[in-house]
Specification:
CATH superfamily of the largest domain in chain B: Periplasmic binding protein-like II
Helix content of chain A: over 70%
GO biological process, one term (chain A): transmembrane transport
Subcellular location (chain A): Cell membrane; Membrane
Number of domains of chain B: 3
Shape of chain A: flat
Strand content of chain A: under 5%
Strand order of the largest sheet of chain B: 2-1-3-14-4
Largest interface: A-B, 34 and 47 residues
Shape of chain B: globular
Structural class of chain B: alpha/beta
InterPro entries (chain B): Bact_solute-bd_prot1 (IPR050490), SBP (IPR006059)
Radius of gyration of chain B: 27 Å
Keywords (chain B): Cell membrane, Lipoprotein, Membrane, Palmitate, Signal
Helix content of chain B: 40-55%
CATH class of the largest domain in chain A: Mainly Alpha
Oligomer: heterodimer
CATH architecture of the largest domain in chain A: Orthogonal Bundle
Protein name (chain B): Extracellular solute-binding protein
Largest sheet of chain B: 5 strands, mixed
Structural class of chain A: mainly alpha
């Protein structure tokens, strides 16, 4: 354009944006390698996270597959109204939040404890073996984990119930009861994910300056004191970061896992948004309605993450944005 | 210094480039995967235009047909027989096998993304009724007469598949009712029990198989009934029809449509099974038991009664014989309940085949597909699809087909093709019926025939309710859950009534009303 024209007698106004944009361009060229490195990640998010969001518009429509998004009727908030009026809405909402809270309270601290314990192990060989063993469940799919639990817990010859009978106790109906669903769920989550979760913490712990431990020892701190006053504060920001991320996933409780555990007898506590979306959308073919449910779920997730971030900042930690 | 830096940079750039490339490739791959069907359709129409020129010529290019079919066994289907059909019909088949457990979801997903194949197999038209009304599927009713074999399809059954009286689909024949009781004959003999004639006899057998040590090993290690998490094809619906429960719907004295669970026979069934469950006469975890586990209980000698499809006695006997050569299974049906005999029936078809306009672009293509199905209905091809290759997979004995293959070959090569044929012995002249070495299997065949004298039909089959289409399945969940809960003792009669009230208030009332109106309009 006129960027080549010498800025002889012209006003400074048109020249300023030109200079600014050329400066930006220059900076981009200068850091081109960084930009190129960002590219795959940016592409990923664009293609798999942002573009699909376009599909959310069908939650405001009466989507008919053969008419497509452009041809389907707009119905405003009708599907959201239906969701909030649904008698099961509060049940699903409560179940989702309860499972999330259980995750936060019972699952979240486990990898931290495990990492601290592993860090204290001096016998390297032993540490490696334990680490490998606790990582393994992460690589098994939920189907396998749930099947194993099923075989162990079933009333018809499951080993746990056989043991209970052997010790003269009553059989417990783990699989078909409202009261055992949540403990079973959280135990399986811990079993599968706790070991894997230690990786980040172990890395953070490894980065702690050994001089700090030496200094603490000089001051007479024992093992527990060192953990409390050195290790934990050192990995505090990692903990907070992971906590915020975890809260962001508030409603990602693992569709597959819950769906496998769900049955007619525990639906009252086990039906969550993910399973509901699946049943309404894919099984019953109500595409618009299930999109509306998913939309609402994401919206709740967004609010939760904003609150968590704000809390983190309030307590002087760095948030995620 | 700068040299090293430069090298690192080159590396980083290379790495980034590779990564973004692979990402793009992955995306492209992903969308290709989704569009397999549309892609095939494109290819199909190209061949069509090519074929037009050489009509009747020997070198006519094979017409490509895409279809989605249900895979029932765990084994991956072999393409030997599809290949033979391709040759005979000058087509190129691409069959997408979908496991039966997730077929409905896959169907809905394919429908939602506009990637249905040219021939869509489904259990009924419910998934796409609105689209059918909006002219998104080919109406084939008026065309059938043009085809020699297709015109043999039973008009009554076709009418059961119709939407607003118009016919959009071909159907696969199934016996109207195959449901019955399979039980351990040797156990019954050990205990001196006759074949059960009434629901009380059946109860007594289930009790005795649990309590009276039917395997005579001196241990309390058996149960009577083995059931699974399926209220329809498991024991529940069949037992309920012994008690005289209607088949999903009934018309009361006031010409009102009502669901089966408002009928008192349904409640009798609930009590009957609750009793059996609470006394430990059946597997306690049946609401979460898979079919495999259910069968395991029978073939491992843990349980003695299996209620379901009687022809299954053949595979069950084979499996049982592997575990215990002395064991013997037999079948029984026509069990008399307090309201007489009865057994529920399907509407005369096992599945239907629809032709979406999104995949079948022109009427010309539609005719080609119909011609293909017409050829499938010749005796020769129907036998090939049902029994395999003569001399290799079966032999003819007394004019009947006698299978000569082992289970695995059967499951990989022969049986999968049962899922994409149409018609059946009643509509295909010269199609072979089965010969069964095993007396119990032959008896099952007789009893399936005998079931025809006591069928309970579903009166809603030819009728339509928009609310049912929209909410029916979600509402049914309420009743299904309540049924399990009642049988397991988590719910009493009042609680079950509450579930019915919930069903009514959340849309059930409207469904009843719509069916009633549709019914009265047809009278």
């Amino acid at each position: 354009m006129n960027s080549t024209a010498p800025a002889s007698g012209r006003g400074a106004a048109p020249a300023a944006p030109t200079r600014r944009s050329s400066e930006r361009l220059r900076r981009i060229v200068k850091n081109r390698y960084l930009y190129i490195m960002i590219l795959p990640g940016a592409l990923f998010f664009l293609l798999f996270k942002y573009v699909p969001m376009w599909g959310l518009v069908i939650s405001f429509q009466n989507y008919q597959p053969y008419l497509g998004i452009s041809g389907s009727d707009w119905v405003g908030l009708q599907h959201f109204e239906r969701l909030f009026a649904e008698p099961t809405f509060w049940m699903i909402f409560r179940n989702t939040l309860v499972l999330f809270a259980l995750n936060l309270v019972f699952f979240f601290p486990v990898p931290i404890l495990l990492a601290l314990m592993l860090n204290e192990v001096r016998q390297l060989m032993f540490k490696r073996i334990v680490q490998t063993i606790v990582y393994i469940p992460h690589f098994m799919s939920w189907v396998i984990i749930v099947s194993i639990s099923f075989v162990m817990l079933t009333l018809d010859g499951g080993i746990v119930n056989e043991l209970l009978v052997f010790f003269g106790l009553e059989k417990i109906n783990f699989l078909l009861s409202n009261s055992w669903f949540r403990p079973m769920y959280i135990a399986q989550v811990i079993w599968r994910e706790a070991g894997w979760g230690t990786i980040v913490y172990l890395a953070a712990i490894a980065a702690v300056d050994p001089q700090l431990y030496e200094a603490a020892r000089m001051d007479g701190a024992g093992r527990t004191r060192q953990v409390w006053h050195v290790t934990l504060p050192a990995i505090r920001s990692v903990i907070v970061l992971l906590l915020i991320l975890k809260i962001g996933d508030v409603l990602e409780l693992g569709f597959e896992h819950v769906y496998l555990l769900l049955n007619a007898m525990n639906r009252e506590v086990a039906e969550i948004f993910d399973t509901y979306v699946y049943t309404a959308g894919l099984k019953n073919g109500q595409f618009s309605y299930s999109t509306a449910v998913g939309f609402f779920k994401s919206f709740v997730g967004l609010i939760m993450i904003m609150v968590a971030n704000w809390l983190a900042k309030t307590f002087g930690e760095e948030g995620i944005y | 210094m700068t040299h090293t830096q430069k090298r690192i940079r080159t590396w980083a750039t290379g790495l980034a480039a590779v990564m973004s490339l692979s990402l793009v490739a992955a995306c492209a791959g992903g969308s290709n995967g989704e569009d397999v069907n549309t892609g095939n359709t494109g290819a199909g129409s190209t061949t069509t235009s090519g074929a037009q020129g050489g009509n009747g010529g020997a070198a006519e290019a094979p017409f490509e047909i895409t279809m989605m079919a249900t895979q029932h066994a765990a084994e991956v289907p072999d393409d030997l027989i599809p290949g033979m059909i391709e040759e005979k019909t000058n087509t190129k088949l691409s069959i997408q096998w979908v496991p039966s457990g997730s077929y409905q979801e896959k169907l809905n997903a394919a429908f939602a993304t506009g990637s249905l194949p040219m021939a869509v197999s489904a259990t009924n038209t419910d998934f796409a009724k609105e689209a059918i009304r909006n002219d998104q599927f080919w109406e084939i009713g008026p065309l059938l007469a043009e085809y020699e074999n297709l015109s043999n399809l039973n008009p009554d059954v076709l009418q059961n598949t119709a939407v607003d009286g118009k016919i959009y689909s071909l159907y696969m024949e199934r016996p109207l009712s195959r449901q019955g009781v399979i039980y351990r004959k040797d156990w019954a003999d050990n205990l001196g029990l006759e074949a059960p004639q009434t629901t009380e006899d059946l109860y007594e057998m289930i009790r005795a198989f649990t309590e009276d040590d039917p395997d005579q090993n001196g241990q309390d290690d058996t149960i009577g009934l083995t059931d699974r998490s399926d209220l329809i094809y498991g024991a529940f619906k069949t037992v309920s029809s012994y008690f005289g429960t209607p088949n999903y719907w009934y018309i009361d004295e006031g010409d009102q449509f009502k669901p089966e669970f408002m009928h008192e026979a349904f409640k009798d069934t609930l009590d009957y099974l609750h009793d059996i469950h609470s006394k430990g006469y059946m597997n306690q975890d049946f609401p979460v038991t898979s079919k495999t586990d259910q069968i395991d209980l029978l073939v491992n000698g843990k349980a003695g009664v299996y209620i379901g499809s009687m022809p299954d006695v053949l595979t069950l006997s084979n499996q049982l014989a592997d575990m215990n050569p002395d064991a013997e299974l037999t079948v029984q049906n026509g069990i008399k309940g307090p309201r007489g005999r009865g057994v529920w029936a399907i509407p005369g078809y096992g599945s239907i085949v629809l032709f979406p306009k999104s995949a079948v672009k022109s009427e010309e293509d539609l005719h080609k597909i119909l011609a293909f199905y017409d050829q499938l209905m010749t005796a020769e091809n129907a036998n090939l699809l049902t029994w395999g290759v003569e001399g290799e997979h079966y032999e003819i004995k007394d004019g009947l087909a006698n299978k000569t293959v082992d289970q695995v070959t059967d499951n990989t090569i022969v049986k999968p093709n049962n899922a994409w044929g149409i018609g059946g012995p009643d509509t295909i002249d010269g199609m072979l019926k089965g010969y069964f070495e095993l007396p119990a299997r032959a008896l099952a065949e007789e009893l399936v025939e005998a079931n025809n004298s006591m069928l309970i039909h579903d009166p809603s089959a030819p009728l339509d309710s928009p609310t049912y289409i929209e909410r029916g399945q979600a509402l049914q969940q309420i009743i299904t859950d309540a049924t399990y809960q009642y049988v397991l003792g988590d719910l009493d009669a009042a609680g079950f009534q509450k579930a019915i009230d919930r069903w009514k208030s959340e849309g059930g009332d409207k469904i009843m009303q719509e069916y009633t109106e549709a019914y009265q309009a047809q009278q």
